[in-house]
Amino acid sequence: xxxxxxRSGEAPQAMLALLAVALLTxxxxxxxxxxxxxxQVEWIGAAGEPxxxxxxxxxxxxxxxxxxxxxxxSQRFKVVVRADHxxxxxxLALVSTVSESGRRRDRLADVELFRRGDGALESPxxxxxxxxxxxxxxGLNGLALRAGLGDRIEARVRRGGGRATIDSVRxxxxxxxxxxxxxxxxxxxxxxxxxxxxxxxxxxxxxxxxRALVEHQLAVLNEVLAQCGIWAGAPxxxxxxxxxxxxxxxxxxxxxxxxxxxxxxxxxxxDGVRHGPWRLGSGYTPVETARxxxxxxxxxxxxxxxxxxxxxxxxxxxxxxxxxxxxxxxPAEISTWPDQPLSTDPQQPLEIGVVSLDDGLDPYGPNQxxxxxxxxxxxxxxxxxPERKVIELFLINRFSGLAKQGxxxxxxxxxxxxxxxxxxxxxxxxxxxxxTLPHEIGHVLLGDLGHPDGRGDARPWLLMNSRASSAxxxxxxxxxxxxxxxxxxxxxxxx
Length: 495
Hints:
Largest sheet: 8 strands, mixed
Strand content: 25-35%
Number of helices: 9
CATH superfamily of the largest domain: Collagenase (Catalytic Domain)
Distance between the termini: 86 Å
CATH topology of the largest domain: Collagenase (Catalytic Domain)
CATH architecture of the largest domain: 3-Layer(aba) Sandwich
Shape: elongated
């Protein structure tokens, strides 16, 4: 035995040095494989092909009765770990992190690992899901990690108490053939109405409450559209506003039948100032009459937009609307002269569009699906901005008649009315039961107001069917064809 000698003053320093060496030796380092390297992590896709590490892509899975398990999903994946199998045990955890905030969204701890013939360890088939309901779906227990598009998905491999080896991919979009694609953005502007000027918003009670409801709706929309690789943006960055109902600033020309004009005089007030009488000729279509009247209004110092409505099948010609705004862009307030009609033409009527939400928004009338009712057009054309490439979402108190909770208008309705969704407050309360907002947005992105169940498709768990179902938590599945059509709509916006 060798005994070293130290001077009395050196003992504390020597003991501290020995302690430091001991601590550094005991501190856990990365897990090591047999050759001394860290464990190697591989991501395997549905066809058995390797998925490259960051920025590799894994698609978001949407279970439905036709495909409820990871084993049938084109978005399924496995994690393979190559490492020394001697004790302590290798553990695998999956973690999803929200891209815009960096917060943890979900964690799947102690993923089961199986020994393969080549000695590597592999997980069972796993999936990413967008919602908590999908996370709890039958057959997905322990096999699903909640994630949003763009989330960082980490595989954390740990041996005993050692530090984890981390490898990551991204949650994105993968088509039915397993090919990754670009995540596409759908842009919304949400307008929350007041019932009367200066009153509270129709939802939420106050500004903070209304904002919370708007953000919740966008979160649900993101969960549903994730299966198609479509994202509506971070809810906290929502484009939204609270506004009064618009002043009567729209003149509708042509009534229900769209006849030629017979001739007459127009008298109106703009912001309380009388204008006219203006003589309009005979033999004009509604659009021609609207343009002629629009020139008079421009001469009076106002900004005018003339829009043609889709033709009613029973009408002779398409009807038209004039939206009248002041020079500063605010809607002008249109009214009639006291005890005088707006127009004396007996054949081609003119009407002022008035929005009155006290009794709900009127959704019923001729050609309502494409052209909307006069009140709907007055609301939308009074507040929407057709120059912005967004879907306009209006939140109202209710529709009159109480039968509807949501309505959408597609591009076939024309630039001024298309790409618009209107929801009432009841639809907001059933965000994850009826999925009204995703359903109506689906109509806009598909450019189709029809429903698959109306064409014989009896799968009530599909988002676009008209019948609600509790299948897998609600009707929110989209077919591969619907996803391709929606993506085609968004990809064509830049053309």
